[in-house]
Amino acid sequence: MSFRRKTHISSIFVVSNLIRTFPNYFSFMNNIYLSIAIIVAAMSFIALIRTNQLRKKDLKVLNEIKKAKDALSKSVLYHGKSDIPNYMFFMQRLMKVDRKFSRFHVSLIKLGRTPVFDSIEGNIDSLSELFKDISKACQPFALALHDSEYLVMAFVTHDTDSSQQEAQSKQLEILDKLPKQVWVNNTQVPIDYAISSMSLTGQSSLYGIDKVQRRLTFSMKFALESENGAFNHNEKLYQAEMYRKHVLLKLMNSISFNPDDFYLVFQPMFKTSNLDQPKRYEALVRWRNTKNVGPKMFMPMIQDKPELQSELTRIVVNQVYSMLKIKLDAQEKLKPIHLNISVAMLENEQLLDYLKKVIRDTPSLAAFITFEITEGSDLNLSANAQNTLRKMSNLGFSFAIDDFGKSTSDTEILNSRYFNSVKIDKAYISDVQSKSDQAPKLDAIVKLAKASKKTVIVEGIENRHQYEYVKRFPNIYLQGYYASVPLTMNEFLSNEAA
Predict the structure, then answer these.
(1) Beta-strand pair 103-111/142-145
(2) Which fold would CATH assign to domain 244-497?
């Protein structure tokens, strides 16, 4: 048998075997595919169940997050658990308005000129009811409870032009609609209001939470002082107050940390018979500052601040004493120096203790220092003040009454043994502007003071007619720009050394 034939027979044999094997192979493969399909189906089913479980869990988490977010939002935008919006809610609502063509009329309303509610928590039901009544009566665009004493209210219009008169009319309209009674602790009580308002556009530089709040708060003090309880914001007045506070802060810094920022000028006092040779001087404090603020502005700022008054007085006393000590060491003739103090500084012995330390080495210098006490409209010396005067007098210091004639207790003051001299308020000479002018009140005061054997000083001599008028009084002193402007320290020392 040939090789080719043998090969053909072998091929036929292989093919026949394969044909017999294929059915078994396909059956095997089908079983594998079925198993895989079952596994895939099982896995898909498991994945579906797991997905549903995760979805339910995620939904639960999302719901919890939403609840937490709502709770946080409520705590931020509302008062506690109540439905009363707070100031954040109020401003958030305004911020969402299209500001470009809008005008806002915003008001701060005080719930009772005398507070009616002591807290929000203790009056939540009453405040909630009042809030609803005001919202219904006034129908503002936004309304919120700032705290237990104040509401904030806003109206929004698309009229960008508004007059002061319209703003004031809006205030009175709001006041008229506010409830006149409120429930407090199950009792209905009357309630009045004060309202401060401002109108501004959304493009205004004043637009903003902090800026609006500061201005309304500032204006509220004027509303409380007004007869009808209403005040519309005045930006010029507000800026003036901000400037005053800025200057006061600088002043406090200088007094507390930079005493060298202050220096003295000396205004001479003359006998009426001789304007060539000063007999006394008044030490006037000046302040070095970038705003060039003078004493007429900065001194009133500390009138109600005794600590600052005390510190500034110490600075002045120290400079006066140092100047007198220099002249004493140079064996120059000394003349009395006047300086101002307030009555409040006599109420305790802090000034006295300081003066004792200052003059400890040269106690004789006390005889050349006269403290001028501002009389004002009503100078009353308490027992403590009189005790301080007595002790300071025993140290050698002298005292004068400044602005004499303004008080209702002139006679009583003149009878005090602690005051050696009186300085008559310049208002009594200011009427003399010509040769024919008379000042009968000045005449009477000079006569009264001289009868009490006090040294008399007339201040405010600004022209020749006033000088000629006071020349008629023998043996009195005068002070004013007609006689001399205040002298610098160098001018004063040179003048006295001549």
Answers:
(1) unpaired
(2) TIM Barrel (3.20.20)
Residue 282, class by beta-carbon neighbours within 10 Å (0-12 exposed, 13-18 middle, 19+ buried)? buried
Q: How many CB atoms lie within 10 A of CB 478?
A: 25
Q: What SS3 class is residue 401? A: strand
Residue 454 zone, left/alpha/beta (φ > 0; ψ -120 to 50; rest): beta
pLDDT interval class at 365 (50, 70, 90): very high
- At 68, which amino acid appears? A
65-74, 187-196, 483-492: the lowest-pLDDT one = 65-74
pLDDT of residue 151: 94
| Confidence tier at 67 by pLDDT (50, 70, 90) | low
For the chain, the straight-line distance linking the first and the last C-alpha, in angstroms and rounded, comes to 162
The neighbouring-strand residues paired with 264 are: 285
The closest of 347, 294, 356 to 321, measured between CA atoms, is 356
Flag whether pLDDT at 175 surpasses 60: yes
DSSP string spanning 27-38? HHHHHHHHHHHH
Q: What is the pTM of this model?
A: 0.74
Kindly report the backbone phi and psi dihedral angles of residue 78, in degrees, each rounded to the nearest multiple of 5, phi listed first. -130, 165
- DSSP structure class, residue 78: B
Under 8 Å between Cβ of 295 and 287: yes
Q: How many of the other CB atoms lie within 10 Å of CB of 161?
A: 8
pLDDT at position 465 is: 95
Supply the DSSP symbol for 365.
Answer: G
Task: Pick 87-233's CATH classification: 3.40.50.1220, 2.60.120.10, 3.30.70.270, 3.90.1150.10.
Answer: 3.30.70.270
CA distances from 173 to 2, 152, 168, 176, 225 (A): 128, 15, 9, 5, 19
Average pLDDT for the chain: 85
**Residue reference for tokens 């919890």:** 64
Report phi then psi at 383, rounded to 5: -65, -40
Q: Is 174 within 8 Å of 135 (Cβ atoms)?
A: no
